[in-house]
UniProtKB/TrEMBL annotation:
Source superkingdom: Bacteria
Pfam family, one: CoA_transf_3
SUPFAM superfamilies: CoA-transferase family III (CaiB/BaiF)
GO molecular function, one term: transferase activity
Species whose genome carries this gene: Gordonia humi
Protein name: Crotonobetainyl-CoA:carnitine CoA-transferase CaiB-like acyl-CoA transferase
Classification of source organism: Bacteria, Bacillati, Actinomycetota, Actinomycetes, Mycobacteriales
Amino acid sequence: MKQLSSDPAPTPLDGVRVLESSSSQACRLAGMLLADLGADVVRTVGSSERDLADPQTLGWDRGKRFAGVGSSAEAARLAESAHVVLDDGTGLYSAAAGTANPRLVRVQLPPYGVVGRESDLPADPLLLSALSGFASVHPSYDPGTPIASVVSVLAGIHGAFGAVAAVAGLIEATETGRGRTLVTTGLDAGAAALSTLVMTGIDVDVVLSPGGRPDSRPSFRVYRCADGEYLHLAALTAEFFLPALDVLGRVDVMVMPGVDGEFMNVNRPEIAATVSPELERTFATRPRDEWVAALTAAGVPCAPVQSRVEWTMSDFVASAAPPVTREHPDLGEVVQPGTPFWFTDATVRPGALPTRSRFLRATDVWRDPAPVPASERGTSEPRRLPLDGLRVLDASTFLAGPTVGALMSDLGASVAKVESPSGDPYAVYAPSYASVNYGKTIGALDQRTPAGRASMVELLTDADVLIDNLRPSVARRLGLDRESVAAVNDRLIKVSVSGYGPDGPHAETPAFDPVLQSLSGMARAQGGSGEPVTAVAPILDVCTGALAAAAALAAVFSTTTRRRGEHTGSSLAAAASYVQLAELTVFPGCPAPEDGDRDYRGPQPWRRYHRASDGWIAVAAQTPDQVSALASATAAVSLTHDGVAVAVAQQPVEQWIGELSRAGVPVCRVTPAGGLLEDPLLIANGFSHVVRIPDLGRFRLARGYFTDLGVDSADRTARVWRLAAEAFDAAGTRHPGYGVIAEAE
C-alpha cells in the first residue's frame, strides 16, 4: 500500500485537469478527492476568498490551486483547457457555460434538488438533512422529531458521488472523444443514505420508516457498562446475536415471550421494549473493556465508544487513513486525516494545504489546450451511459461492498454478483438487500468444487473489475487475492472494501457502520454530554462504497494508458475520518468542533430545527443580517432556543416559510419520516423508484446516486453480462433478479 511514499509511481489521475466552480462543502470535497487521486484541481475564487487559511476548509481545499476569475469569459477559457468541470451552482461563475470543448465532462452537484422552490436555497447541511428526511430518521427520544447531525455526513457522501461521476465521465471521454453532463444532487445523497431503511410495499403490505429511540434495537445499539463507559453492540444478524447472548449469559432472551426463538422478532418495537432493559442490566454488571474483549473473542462485532482524540491516536487510523502533518505559514503545524483511498501500485497522497501562495491569476493557469489521453480501447461509438461495456464481478456481501457495484451499474456497467451457495447474509432483509443489488445479474458459484472454481476463473478472465469485502485470509483461500487474480487477468482492477484497511493489526477484523461511528468519535460528538448516539442510517457504508468506487474507476481510467491491473480500495475507518475531515483537522488554537446533546436540534437558535404549529421548520441564518431578519420576523422575546421556539410554535409551517423567505432567511420544512416516499418535492426530484423482489412483489425504495446521466430513464435498464448469466444458469443458481420496473402506479 502506497500513500505517502516518495516512489515515483504515477498517480491514477496523473495529467487530468479539473476546474472547480463552487462554494459548497460537497463540491469542494469532490474536488479534494480528485486532487488526492492526482488530478490538477483549480478552484475559481473571487476577491472575498483570497484568505485561504480558513480553518474549517483546510481539508476541503487541500491539493488545489486557486484562480481569481473576474468574468465568465475567463471561466470559459479555463474550461476549454480542462478535462472536468465541477459546478454546484453556488460558485462565482458556471465555468462550463459557453465552452465548445467536446471532451469536457461537466459534473453538476446542486446542494438540494434540481426542481422545487428549495433548489435556490444556499447550501447548508442542516437544510439538506431536513428536506431529505434524514433528520427525521435519526434516532430520537422523542420519536418522529428531527435531529441535527453534528457531522455533515450527507455532504461527504454527495462529494464522493461527484468524484465517482467525474471519473466515470473521464473514462467515457477518453474512449469515445465525447464528454457529457452528469448530475448528482444533495437529495441523491440523502436517498442513498436512507435507501435500506425507507420503503413501502406495493404488492404486499409493508411500510418501513425507521427512526425511533436510540435504544429501540437491542441487537444493534449503545450500552452503558459498569464503569460508566459505553460500547456499541453491532449484532446485525442471528449469526452474531446468538454468540453475543452466549457471552452475556443471556441465551434465555431467545425464549422470552414474543421472541419465541426467532431473531427477527428481537427488534420488533413491542418486543424490543422488553428485551433492551434486560440486556442493559446485564451490560451494567461488568466494565466496558471486559465486555469488548469477550465479545470480540467470540467474533461479535462491537466497539468501545471513543472520543475523536482517542480515534486519531489509535492504531485503527494508522492502518486505514494515517493522519498527515504539515506546516502552514500562518497556522503552524496542521494535522489532518490522510487520503481515504489506498493503491498497491499507484501513488495517492493528500495534497498541499491551501495557502495564499497557491492563488494565481486566471491567465497563469493552463495556457495550453487540455492534453488528450490515449486509449488503446478507444472508439468513436456513442454510449448510452458512461460505463457501458465495463464488466464488473461483485463478490461482496452486506452493504458497503455492494454499493460499489450499485454505483457502477447505475452508470452503465454490467455487474454480476456472485455469492456463495448460502447466499449473502444481508438478503434476510430483502428490500434493503434489493436497494443495492437491483440491476445486477445475481447467482451462486461453489468455489469449493472444480466446476465452481472453473466458472469463477472464466469470469475473472473476462472481467474488468472485481469487487470484494473479504478478509485477506479468506480472499487467499478462495483464490481472490491480488496475486491469484493477477495470474488469471493481469489487467483486472481489484477493489477491496474493508473495516480497517488492507493490512495492519485489524485487517482480519469484521466491522459494521455503527462500530466505526462509535470508534471514530462520531457517536460521542452526536450525544455531547449525554448518551452517545449513532445514526441508524448506514452513512459510513454508503460513503465507503462511493469512495471505493471512485478509487476503482480511477484505476480503470489509468489502465486505458498504462495496461496494468491494480489493487485499490477504501474502508469504513477511512470513511469515518473523511466525513469528519474538518472536525479532525487540528492546529494550535483551532476552535473546538461542534458537539451535540440529547435530542440535538442545532447549534444556535438561528440555525436549528423549530416546531411550528403543524410540523417542523429548519432555519439556517448564515449572516448577521439574516439573524437580525429572523429576530424581526419572529418577534421573539429573546434570541435564545426557547425564545425563538415559543414564537415559531404559534404559526404553521407554510406561513413561516413565506414570511422568513421574504425576509431573506434561509428556511425550509422538515420532511417527516412517515410518507417520505410520497412527498411531492422528493417525487419531483426522482427520490425513489420501484423494484420487483422475487417471491415478494414490487417495492418502492429510495434511490440515490445520480439524477441525470443525459439519457432517458428507459436507457438506464440493467445490462446483463452474458457470460456470467450463462455460468449461473449452468450451475442452476441464477437469481431471478431485482429489475427496475416502470414507475407508473
